[in-house]
Amino acid sequence: VRCPTHASPFIQQLVLTMSSLWRHCIFAMNKPVGMTSATLLNKCKKQLRNTLDLNGQSPKLKVGHGGTLDKYACGVLVVGVGAGCKQLTGYLSGGKAYEVVGELGSATDTDDCDGEVIMQCDSSHVTQQCVESLLPQFTGSILQTPPLYSALKHNGKRMSDLARSGIQVSQQPRRVTIDSIALEQFGMDTFTLSVKCQGGVYMRSLVRDIGRGVNSCAYMKSLVRTKVGDFTLDQCLAISDLAEDPCNLMQQGVLIIDCAPAKNDTPQS
Length: 269
Hints:
Elements: H1 9-20, E1 25-31, H2 37-51, E2 63-65, E3 74-81, H3 88-93, E4 96-104, E5 106-108, E6 117-120, H4 128-134, E7 140-144, E8 153-154, E9 157-158, H5 159-164, E10 174-187, E11 190-197, H6 203-213, E12 218-228, E13 231-232, H7 246-251, E14 255-256
Parallel strand pairs: 3-12
Antiparallel strand pairs: 1-3, 1-14, 2-3, 4-11, 4-12, 5-6, 7-10, 8-9, 10-11, 12-13
């Protein structure tokens, strides 16, 4: 929110007050395919520093997200700023919705389209009914083994970094909750699922395990996260929105401001 230099002191203070609402808030961005979650966060932070006229100044902004998305996935990424970061735990562990496309007949080392093909299997016997009949096994509280390449840590190091270094670490199954799965489309070697789940579920693992369940193999071809908490795709902001009046965005229900810090809180970098 920019203020003309000739504006009255009252208007200047009003604009400053409105702009400062960006210091402690929560909103959602639509992460594009090919961009990492960290890169999108940095873009948000850069724009907000411009909006708040913080460039070259202290305090620094604390910015975080409520659940990472892989580079080749897209969709809702919840962003917290300042005191808003303290509320991100609920988004990390809470409800999410996805549209995921699986490719039958091949498996990759990353369980998605970014990896190298490590196995090819016959999938000519797999029918729509085969996939649909399998889905109840993956609904509810289930044990799921994360992908070899993941952001999970082992002895303080990311599993993906260890895997790229050639260090093999056995992944242990974790209990996760999938609320519902619907088969939306089934075609030549591909299937599309609509999934609602809680935090910690890997869509790559779900597709991989479905491939194994139908006596074939599969990897995740594409992924869109359509909802996190109450944030949906059509509520996501653009980078340019972060320079706008936050009051208007609050009225539209796409910006949460009720996360002000305690009086003794100090700004963090």
